[in-house]
């Protein structure tokens, strides 16, 4: 698991930055009912997406468990960010009209508890919007993916869409729409993927096996178009409405 306090300083630059955040926020807003007046963005990180969840009449809050991330989010958004565990939110029941979770649940083994908390703080008729199948979105069937596929193992996908539907149903949340958006700025080049491997970025796929990393980096170095960016990942948002 990453140390998000330390990662906060350069996190955005290594994750697609503003273009990706713009696309994510726009997709969330497409699913958000026009009647919503309050939105809680959980696992808000540095606030890059949170800052862009803006429209007239909507007040946006953020929550994150990392001091470093929350501090960055406060600097970026000007406030309305709380430090808190997304499995036990520091908020009363039925407090907000909507909850968003962008690139969060794939990191949380207790995803069911997070969904339950989102349902608890939602008002009746409120909307929970979350990314699902995040890791699968990175497989664009490129030649880079073909090299990495025999070694790649994301482990258990905590944000699998069928699991999210099951967790949501247990909390009185019903499917209410889907949206897709591109991970702008995240398309990989063979050289960039090799550099990331050697720097330990994909360590979770094959542990700390430095020999495997070197082997894969060498295979990537043999691909054509070393500086040519392959297709960007494609992410999915799933919306759920709380029963009245």
Give the count of structural domains: 1
Largest sheet: 7 strands, mixed
CATH superfamily: Vaccinia Virus protein VP39
* Structural class by sheet pairing and helices: alpha/beta
Return the CATH class.
Alpha Beta
Q: Which shape, going by the Cα principal axes?
A: elongated
Q: Which CATH-level-2 architecture?
A: 3-Layer(aba) Sandwich
The amount of helix comes to 25-40%
Number of strands: 7
- Uncertain segments are none
Chain-averaged pLDDT = 90
Radius of gyration: 18 Å
Number of helices: 9
CATH fold label: Rossmann fold
Q: What portion of the residues fall into strands of 2 or more residues? A: 15-25%
Please list the strands of the largest sheet in the order they lie side by side. Answer: 3-2-1-4-5-7-6
Give the N-terminus to C-terminus distance in angstroms.
38 Å
SSE string: HHEEHEEHEHHEHHHE
